[in-house]
Amino acid sequence: MFLKEFFYFSKSDRKIILFVLFIGIIATAAIFGISSITTNREIEEKTDTVVQKKPISSSKNTVLEELEDETLPKAERFYFDPNTATANELFRLGLTEWQIKNIYKYRKKGGIYRKPSDFARLYGMTVEQFKQLEPFIRIKGDYRPASELFKNEEKEAKNTVAPRDTTRYPVKIAEGEQVTLNGADSTTLKRVPGIGSGWARQILAYEKRLGGFVSVEQLREINGFPEECIKFFNIHSPNVRKLNINKLTLNQLRQHPYINFYQAREICDYRKQKGKIQSLNELKLLKEFPAEKIAQLEPYIEY
What CA–CA distance (Å, rounded) separates 245 from 302? Predict the structure, then answer.
């Protein structure tokens, strides 16, 4: 509608209208241009002010490094006890917030740092960080185990020689000394080098079966008896328990180590046939009683 009305104006009117529009466009453009220049100048002035207030160090290469210097505290170095250090002290040492929280949790649960190496186990602790802190760790003696207070007493107790139990562990006799075999008790027998409780029991048991020893050589009749121990024994006035060969039954006779079943039967049969035995020489005619057997039995037989 406007265009139609515009063409109804005369040619001179149209020229005036176009001139006015042209002037308006130029004026508008000039206003916006001046405003933009003013804004840019203000930004530059503000930037210059910031630069003057905070000059960038020549040793810094990035904005990130500059920000790190402003946000992270510089670690201090002073003596501290990780068992009692406050959060503020730990923060000043350069520990992070979460490391400090872990320390507090550990202490709350009863954990104790007894030596610097315990502190090295802190989660997140680096080798470099620990090496820097280690010379400044001072742990009070109150946190040492209480058992350490008695270490010296324990050492003294260990070094103290307890009185020897001569009943269980008798003092051994020296080379050249001897023990009388018959009548010796277990403690006396154990004084012989090489004789312990086991051999002492076997010696006493065999002595009881024999009725007494008449020679130290009889110790060889004990199975496995140590040969080197025989020299430490002697026999003085042997007083053995004797067997009445005319009165004992077959079972009683065979209980002696030197009489077996067949020999006991021969003795009983001989008594039935010949009557009372007056001497062991009467048994020499029997095949179960050779001369060496007669000599072996002689000290233990009575009539």
Answer: 6
3-state secondary structure of 230: helix
With tokens 């002697």, the residue in question is: 234
The single-letter code of the amino acid at 232 is F
Span 93-104, pLDDT tens digits: 989 999 999 999
Task: Kindly report, residue by residue over 113-126, the tens digit of the pLDDT.
Answer: 888 888 888 888 88
Q: Which of 184, 190, 192 is nearest to 166 (CA)?
A: 190
Q: Over the Cα atoms of the chain, what is R_g? A: 59
- Measured over the CA atoms of residue 274, residue 277, residue 280 and residue 282, the dihedral's sign is negative
Candidates 197, 150, 143; CA nearest to 169 is 197
Alpha helices for the chain (secondary structure H): 2-6, 11-53, 63-71, 87-92, 97-108, 116-119, 127-133, 151-159, 186-189, 197-210, 250-254, 261-274, 291-297
Contacts of residue 171, Cβ cutoff 8 Å, sequence gap at least 6: 164, 191
